[in-house]
Amino acid sequence: MKKKLEHSKFIAQKRPVAEKLLSDLLDIYPYASVLVTDVETMSYRIGKSGIQVSQNPRFGGKGMVVKVYDGVSYAEYSGNEIDFDALPGILDTIENSLVPLKGKLPEGLLDSEYQQLSDTGTKLVKASEYEIDPREMGDEAIIKKLTALREFALAQDERLLDSIHSYQYQINHKLFLSKNRDMEQSAMWGEGFIYMMVMKDGDEVKDYYKGFSVLGGAELLDEMEQYIPENAKKCVELLNCESITPGTYTCICTPEVTGMIVHEAFGHGVEMDMFVKDRALAKNCMNTQVASDLITMRDGNSLSDVATYFFDDEGTPSADTVVIDKGILKAGFSDAQSAMHLGTAPTGNGRRESYERKAYTRMTNTYFEAGTSSVEDMIASVEYGMLLEAPSSGMEDPKNWGIQCMVNIAREIKNGRLTGRVFSPIVLTGYVPDLLKSISMISDTVEHCGSGACGKGYKEWVKVSDGGPYIKAQIRLG
Amino acid sequence: MTTLINDICRALGELNVAEWILSQTDTETAELFFIKHNLDMRRMKKVTKINVTVYRPFEKDGAKMKGSSSVEIVPSQSFVEIKALIEKAYFAASFVANPTYSLPDKVIGELKKSESDIAKVSVGDAAMVMAKAMFAGESKDNKAFINSGEIFAEKSTTRILSACGTDVSYEDCNVNGELVVQCKEPEDVEMFRSFEYDGLKTDAVTALVKEALSQVEDRAIAKKELPSGSYDVILSGEQLAELMSFYPERTSGNMVFPGYSTWKVGDDIMGETVTGERINLIGHAKQPFNSEGIPMEDKPLIEDGKVSLIHSGAQFASYLQQPMTGLYTAVTLNNGTVPFAEMKKNCLYPVTFSDFQMDAFSGFFGGEIRLAYLFDGENVKIITGGSVSGNISECCGELVFSRERYSGANYEGPFAVKLKNIKVAGTV
Fold this sequence. Notes:
The complex is a heterodimer. Chain A is an alpha+beta fold.
């Protein structure tokens, strides 16, 4: 039975301080907002290096962001001293150092001119649900569970060098206050991974990674065990992997590889702060065909995973955005300031790595919808090609829609059957619309996962999930 | 913030925590976000974070164990909250069954003040100085321009305390950021660059921008006409820094103790036949202490191609019976014999990738080419597309480094290296 999360006591204590700060700021500035965050977290990791336990937040922490509009442009202050005694100092920094900073701009550089952000009245208090509270389950039980999973994993094959098992939960509490908005939310996500390794030729560690995630609690731990035998088998297969001959292949992508393509190859290109900067080709392709008509792509809260929330870090309610509808590019997603610049409605995608960082347009839960084919039929349809699985990394190129994605395994398919030959590592390259338009079959179920983190370029890490069905496409591999 | 540290020490005492290490960092930043020549957002940050690690000795099956757990504490937390967090961490440590190990010895020292010129000005002024230098790289002679840029000026003070009496502190200053340059004709293309300096290195950021503008103009005319095959490949700048990150990772106790790296002190890691340069790599201490209070100084990691140090924090140093050195993430490479101009013969020289990566576990490196120059001995072709992939363990015996030097955030050494016979997936 699912239970609803309780809200933060820390935020309840700090609310009067945040309200006083907002009130003082609104005496000076036409617009001001305060976002207070409180992150509860615990991470556990067990491997050959030992056991590591930490309460240090990887995303977020306890602190606040203050945003002010001086009638022309916006400025932000981040801090983590949220006490009445600290308010005079914070106000002094904002008024006498931060806001006037634009006056020191070198010759030739100008301040941006923006309108005042929309601040229509919204009152909202929401929390996500969970099945098992990891705090009640306790450290001892979680460590015992992970230890048992690791022992089970290592017993699968003596050639395994190590099997690392990890679980982390994080509870994000947020309070957003502006003149007309009072919003509070709490959401708990969990993530875990199994990371197996073998030693090839005495000096080359090959690895196989499987991630797990949930908008919820420690129920995730029960899901991990069933994948261990299959993961161990796949990891050991890497001892006999070969280098692939570069070229264009007919490929079947597993849902996790589909997710990487959705996210890296296309998703970053419809983050609309990139439209503002003239950094995204997608801006010029609205209402045109960018993918096979089998493809419908969404981002937002229609999927329940680690990036599900009720309002974003700028106080905009979350949404469900249809990005591609049957192959036609219909919309991007945006933060509030970018939407104002472009004259569009914000979609609730303004996200910060933490209270210490600026908000950018970011993806949330991003995926392709399911099709109608069976996976068996898809593989059977391939005369010669590769089954791609186990994505490892990817890099966006919104301006030129180039693809760079890495996957760990390509399995040879010949005459509709897997031959047992395995190639690794694999680099996917090419032009995004070429790949998406070449999609000729998609499977009838969607799988998604949010065990990783997404950067904007090389920084600003936030939790996201991605996924989709199996897809069949023409892809250049190297 | 002395009150906060006092509260933490009081909580540790009341909970009878005998071994602990505490690291407090106070950080102040000014941040500028530009779209073309317009300041789109300005930010300032002032945060204090204290990381507390508690250690708990216990026995399991007759063996001595030392569990640990860490927690982050910030201002605004009451003594009751702080004590509850530390109690939770100390309880969790009782289930962390790691074999016992020694913690660093006591060190006491005065505050090591930053000698950077950033320390002499406000973070706001430091950010503005770098903004001026960044845009000074633009020229009317260029078709290309700065599309957008971000500048972060940062000052921090770190203090490390421990139960055994360690009390050291140091200041740190840096300016870092990133920029995107764009050229609209004949193809509309862009390029990304990042930078990090420990001083107001205005000339360096101006030069970075000039080079980026020149290269993005080349990318605008680059052709997708790279044949697949094997090439001698030159890597330079940040790609070479990424390639060299293989060595500090492979010599770290974090990889050696669990057996992910088989390297030992004295091992020759260059292979049986070495016709190129033997690597001489120094671990560079970016701070005077690691987070556990271990004093850090520059130390050789690899000398003449042989491992000279396995570097570790307290736990793995103790397990491996190696000196406690702290972990090195930055390196100085003392190689370089050939003028860069001589290296550019019959080779492929990719200058930017979408994301060049080095996997320290397997030794594989590679990335998708955004801009490359293909030298055939007489002509130079400007290329885009395709990808490079190789394994450092297979090509390290034939490394040739340039005499010219390069300095980045985590690397100081030759500007370029030539790798022989590297597999390239082309576009034709």
